[in-house]
Amino acid sequence: MVSAFHAICAFIARRTLIDWRVAFRHLLRHFKLTNGTLLPGVSYPETLAENLSSKRTNHKLAEQGRRNRINNALKEIETLIPTSFVQIKHAKEAAICNAKGGDKEKEKEKEKAGNQPISKASTVEMAIDYIKALQQELEETKGKLAAAEERLGEGKGLGKRDDNTTNPENGKTANPVDAESAATSHEIDNSA
């Protein structure tokens, strides 16, 4: 059992070492091709070095474009977070720091940090908090709207029952709107 374990460990060590050597040789060859320091007596096609160089250049440009897109998106997110929200978050963090027994030096560092631009990670964290706050506000508003619509619906139902009143003298149901229009038309007839 012990010998099998040692054999497996030796195999893994050899395999890792072989993989490392192959990777190193490949990297060295790539470096020599791109820098023009080729081994004497070994010839490589000229297009190979050009292709490697153009691939590297294209990769650099693509990576720079990706970083620019990320940075622009983060700047846009930072502008969308209201300054009042940022100030409230900083105030909460300062209160937590003071509650934990923060000393004057930490407070001064926080003040200096407040004047500096927000880090990318902080921007994303604040955006997450802001989105959560907006979602909570939306749910509360939806609840208030549903309650208001329910009250309005109940009010309409009561209003319909009150529209028709019963005259105690003759027991007939009269609509106050009809009574108003009848009174108005009667006044018009008398003035003519």
Please write the string of helix (H) and strand (E) elements: HHHHHEEH
This entry's quaternary arrangement is single chain
Could you estimate the helical fraction of the residues in percent? over 70%
Unreliable stretches (pLDDT < 50, length at least 5) are: 182-186
The structure class reads mainly alpha
Per DSSP, what share of the residues sits in E-state strands of 2 or more residues? under 5%
Shape, please? Answer: elongated
Count all strands and give the number.
Answer: 2
Query: What distance separates the N and C termini?
Result: 123 Å
Question: How many helices?
Answer: 6
| Rg | 40 Å
What is the mean predicted local confidence, pLDDT?
72
Largest sheet: 2 strands, antiparallel
Strand order of the largest sheet: 1-2
Protein name: BHLH domain-containing protein
Biased composition (Basic and acidic residues): 101-113, 145-164
GO cellular component, one term: RNA polymerase II transcription regulator complex
Region (Disordered): 99-120, 145-192
What does this structure look like?
With 192 residues, the protein is an all-alpha fold. The chain has a domain at 82-157. It is 82% helix and 2% strand. It has helices at residues 2-35, 46-80, 83-99, 104-115, 120-163, 176-191, and strands at residues 165-166, 173-174. It has a two-stranded antiparallel ribbon with strand order 1-2. A hairpin with a 6-residue loop joins β1 (165-166) and β2 (173-174). α2 packs across α5 (120-163) and α3 runs antiparallel to α4. It is elongated and about 95 Å long. Residues 182-186 have low confidence and may be disordered.
